[in-house]
């Protein structure tokens, strides 16, 4: 069965309340569990630092009035676990990059929770929608890795993601989802677990793309966390626990998400016409989802149903925000502005 058909079956099962569609054959389960135990002896031998708080106002060179409101939701990847400075987190990098492109200040709120699965998205969305200032202008969701490692049924995973995107879109927020990363890139994971992890990750990523596009969001394939650099230099791109990304890894991921984040707000200075030379075009949604799952950094957005636009947006190098004197509450400066604190609305997850 093709990857596109598998992704469509998972998405359809989620939409119609179907049962679990197994990503892996029953015969593989015994091998998978044995290899998992071996991997656990290596993965996590180091301790990744807790995510530093990066909420605050970025791009102060553009003033402080009427900022764009950016929110991050999801798991430890969205939270930034594995780095020690707020300016190294994906939230800070995206906020500063968005401020520089839009030439407006950006207020960042991160409600992502390390270890979260898709069933935590409802709580995270509720935190954002309860803010007195209203819903964010744009939300970035990174979720899926823990769904795979904890064997959450794929149909349940994508159903929960679809519900979160639907709530945010109904509230008026734009949504960009970084789909499930390729767990086959984790260095201590050996064959055949590496192949099984890659297969499960890509199938979930493709199914996530289908349901997100159907709810009016856009997706960016995180794949192997965006770039052959991860396969070539895993010790540089992963953190001390060999599972969470390093600062360089997060910067690589942020560079790939930023163009779509800016495009969804209409501030990316690049035409939306597909470029044949870059293998862009309009495909059936399921086919586009399957292609994106194999090619990291690929954006999928809705065209006329049942079609989707596949794009490979040009990336821009992001400079790490400089640490400021305001401390970690507003740490990180935009590419053209300094940091400043924002009052928090409720507890940080």
Envelope shape: globular
Helix content: 25-40%
Low-confidence stretches: 18-34, 36-47, 235-242, 323-349
Over all CA atoms, what is the radius of gyration? 19 Å
Sheet of most strands: 9 strands, mixed
Amino-to-carboxy terminus distance: 40 Å
Strand order of the largest sheet: 1-3-2-4-5-6-8-9-7
What is the number of helices? 12
Feature tags:
349 residues; alpha/beta; 9-stranded mixed beta sheet; 9 strands; 12% strand; disordered C terminus
Structure description:
With 349 residues, the protein is α/β, with parallel strands linked by helices. It is 38% helix and 12% strand. It has twelve helices and nine strands. The protein has helices at 3-15, 26-40, 76-79, 90-102, 121-129, 145-149, 154-170, 193-214, 229-232, 234-237, 247-264, 285-294, and strands at residues 56-58, 68-74, 106-110, 138-142, 174-178, 218-220, 281-284, 299-302, 307-311. Strand 5, helix 8 and strand 6 (218-220) form a beta-alpha-beta unit. Helix 1 (3-15) crosses helix 8 (193-214). The termini are far apart. The relative contact order is 0.19. The model is unreliable at 18-34, 36-47, 235-242 and 323-349 (pLDDT under 50).
């Amino acid at each position: 069965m093709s990857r596109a058909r598998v992704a469509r079956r998972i998405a359809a099962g989620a939409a119609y309340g179907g049962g679990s569609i197994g990503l892996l054959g029953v015969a593989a389960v015994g091998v998978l569990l044995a290899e998992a135990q071996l991997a656990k002896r290596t993965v996590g031998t180091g301790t990744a630092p807790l995510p530093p708080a990066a909420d605050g106002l970025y791009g102060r060179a553009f003033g402080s009035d009427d900022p764009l409101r950016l929110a991050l939701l999801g798991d430890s990847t969205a939270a930034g676990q594995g780095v020690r400075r707020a300016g190294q987190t994906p939230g800070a990098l995206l906020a500063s990059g968005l401020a520089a492109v839009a030439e407006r200040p950006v207020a960042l709120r991160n409600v992502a929770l390390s270890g979260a699965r898709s069933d935590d998205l409802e709580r995270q969305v509720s935190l954002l929608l309860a803010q007195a200032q209203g819903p964010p202008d744009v939300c970035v969701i990174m979720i899926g890795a823990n769904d795979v490692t904890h064997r959450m049924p794929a149909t349940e995973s994508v159903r929960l993601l679809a519900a979160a995107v639907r709530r945010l879109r109904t509230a008026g927020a734009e949504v960009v989802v970084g789909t499930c990363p390729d767990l086959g890139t984790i260095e201590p994971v050996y064959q055949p677990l590496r192949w099984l992890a890659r297969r499960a990750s890509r199938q979930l990523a493709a199914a996530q793309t289908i349901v997100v596009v159907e709810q009016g969001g856009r997706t960016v394939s995180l794949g192997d966390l965006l770039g052959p650099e991860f396969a070539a230099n895993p010790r540089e791109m992963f953190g001390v626990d060999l599972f969470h990304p390093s600062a360089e890894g997060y910067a690589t991921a942020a560079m790939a998400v930023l163009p779509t984040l800016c495009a969804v707000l209409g501030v990316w200075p690049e035409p939306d016409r597909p470029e044949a030379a870059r293998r862009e075009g309009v495909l059936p949604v399921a086919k586009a989802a399957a292609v994106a799952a194999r090619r990291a950094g690929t954006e999928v957005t809705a065209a006329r149903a049942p079609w989707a636009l596949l794009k490979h947006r040009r990336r821009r190098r992001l400079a790490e925000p400089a640490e400021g004197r305001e401390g970690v509450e507003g740490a990180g400066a935009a590419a053209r502005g300094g940091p400043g604190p924002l009052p928090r609305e409720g507890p940080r997850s």
